[in-house]
Fold this protein.
Amino acid sequence: MEGRKGTIFTVFSTAYAVGKTLIAINMAAELAHEGLKVCLVDLDLQFGDICYYLKLAPKLTIADAQKDMKEHPKDAAAAEFLTPYKKGKVQFDVLANPKLMEEAYNMETPIIRALVQQLQLEYDYVIVDTTSTFSALNLAMMDLSTIINFVCIVDFIPTIKNMKRGSDTLKELGYDDSKIRYILNRSNAKTRIDVEDVESILGKHFDYVLPNDFQTAQNSIRTGSPFVIDACHTPLAKELAGVVDGYISPGKVEKQEKSDNQGGWLSRLFS
Ligand SMILES: Nc1ncnc2c1ncn2[C@@H]1O[C@H](COP(=O)(O)OP(=O)(O)O)[C@@H](O)[C@H]1O
Ligand SMILES: [Mg+2]
């Protein structure tokens, strides 16, 4: 285990209900399907959906892990607070969001950061699901990440305005553009807005495009099964598996790790 450091993928967006959680779950499942050791972390602390989508009933959560770390800073172990998910041959672990709102409110960014770094030592991949805010916590996770998956959706004008604001903010904070992947989700959903127009507003092309597939997405949530496992022949599952397979193909991720930001989000915000 010595010297080993897993790769962190964060799933972020500037709008709600764009598919972050579904994408994070399916990224974890696809990586696990490839035989990699994966931990999925729910950092939508107040309204996390991972356990709900996977039909897990965690005994322990990230709030218990924080308590343990405060009580035993020297020998706390994040891995003791995980909930296993298993479907057929696919298995990964989940660090669940707190059960109580009060616990969620009292979570501390430096402790969460330390917990994720501990998991990084034990897992090949740590997938972090977030909320749609530029919070200290989300920025701390983006700093640790090798890839930031910026999930986009083309529905209404304010959503596009906020995507642009988010993309500009990431740039202002100094994140290397090669670390950010723009994923357009629900691409063929009915809208009067042209994707090309959105790309020209953003000043970049979407790196990946996932189709709108209500049936597959809903079935996945209803059955508690990631669609890359149970609906692997659907275009949605194939596209998402393709994103993940691209990330883990030799040479791709290692190259990005070298260009990781060193300064830290706080120093960049106030410099
Ligand atoms: N590609 C897709 N096609 C159809 N529905 C989708 C797709 N991706 C996500 N959804 C649906 O959108 C809703 C919000 O997804 P979720 O992953 O919870 O978003 P977020 O985590 O960004 O709030 C869910 O009901 C989910 O089934
Ligand atoms: Mg979510």
Confidence is low (pLDDT under 50) at residues 254-263. The pocket of adenosine-5'-diphosphate (ligand 1) is lined by residues 13, 16-22, 49, 185-186, 210, 212-214, 217-218, 221, 236 (CB under 6 Å).
